Amino acid sequence: MASLLLLLPLLLFFHSPLSYSNPIILPLKTQKIPSSSIPKPPNKLFFHHNVSLTISLSVGTPPQPVTLVLDTGSELSWLRCWKSPKYPSFSPLASSSYSTLPCSSSTCKTRTRDFPIPPSCDSKNLCHVSLSYADASSTEGSLAMDTFRIGDSTRPGTIFGCMNTDFSSSPQEDSQNAGMLGMNRGSLSFISQLGFPKFSYCISGRDSSGVLVLGDSDLPSLTPLNYTPLIQISIPLPYFDRVAYSVQLEGIRVSNKLLPLPKSVYEPDHTGAGQTMVDSGTQFTFLLGPVYTALKNEFANQTSRVLRVLNEPGFVFQGAMDLCFKIPVAERVPDLPAVVLMFRGAEISVSGERLLYRVEGEMRGVDAVWCFAFGNSDLVPMEAYVIGHHQQRDMWVDYDLQESRVGFGPAKCEVAAQKLGVGV
Question: Is 135 among the catalytic positions?
Answer without folding.
Answer: no
